[in-house]
Amino acid sequence: MQKVKMPVTIDPVKAAQKRSDYDGFIPLVNLTRLSESLLQSAGEVTVRVECGTDQQGLTVIQGSASCEVSVTCERCGEAMTVALDCNFAYTPVKPDDDAALELIPERYDVIEKNEHGEINLRQLVEDELILALPLFPMHDEAVCAVSAATMSFGDIGPEPEKPNPFAVLAELKKK
Predict the structure, then answer these.
(1) What whole-number distance in Å separates Cα of residue 2 and Cα of residue 37?
(2) Measuring CA to CA, which residue among 37, 64, 166, 42 is closest to residue 125?
(3) Closest CA to 60 of 19, 101, 8, 23
(4) Which class for 98: exposed (0-12), middle (13-18), buried (19 or more C-beta within 10 A)?
(5) 158 has which bridge partners?
(6) Residues 73-118: pLDDT tens digits?
(7) pTM of the predicted structure, to 2 decimals
(8) Do residues 86 and 113 lie in contact, with contact meaning Cβ atoms separated by under 8 Å?
(9) pLDDT (tens digit, 9 = 90+) per residue, 98-107?
(10) In terms of Cα–Cα distance, which of 60, 64, 70, 107 is closest to 85?
(11) How far is Cα 79 from Cα 39, in angstroms, rounded to an integer?
């Protein structure tokens, strides 16, 4: 199958009526917010998007995205590779349409259409990949350059005993 660049925006209603499928890639360089968290922005994200309608007649955009990125290990500070995989299911709504929000099932996330009735597919994929990034990426302890023994910073001695604040009440009760 031929790899093609994913469109930046799509009209979800027209795409759902045509039951459009998009299978392609997005260069990591184009995902600027995600690239800020990475060591290198070389490579590409493999994306698959399917548009259609569900039993309720809602327009649905389902898909998946995957890529390998290079991030900094929080334990040792060295570079490490992390595989990001995410699946998503969205239904587009018009901004400020509160009545439509109540009818949408929980299995769908909501995405707002812009003034032209389109959604930004690149931004949707970038948001999903940012959410898939680990908060604190770390190598496995067996592989990491910093061992558990070197991470200890000494012994914490026993806590000094403090006087009981209720001892004063006990003295008053005895009188």
Answers:
(1) 30
(2) 64
(3) 19
(4) exposed
(5) none
(6) 888 888 999 999 999 999 988 777 666 677 788 888 888 888 888 8
(7) 0.77
(8) no
(9) 666 777 888 8
(10) 64
(11) 8
**Closest to 31 measured CA to CA, from 117, 106, 132, 100:** 132
Which amino acid makes up residue 8?
V
Q: Tokens 């998946």 sit at which residue?
A: 64
**How many residues does this entry show for the chain?**
175
68 Cβ contact partners less than 8 Å away, ≥ 6 residues apart:
43, 81, 82, 83, 84
- Comparison of pLDDT for 121 and 160, the residue scoring more: 121
Residue with tokens 């400020």: 96
Are 114 and 93 contacting, i.e. CB atoms less than 8 angstroms apart? Answer: no
Query: 160: phi > 0 → left, psi -120 to 50 → alpha, else beta; which?
Result: beta
* R_g of the chain computed on alpha carbons: 26
CA-wise closest residue to 133 among 52, 50, 70? 70
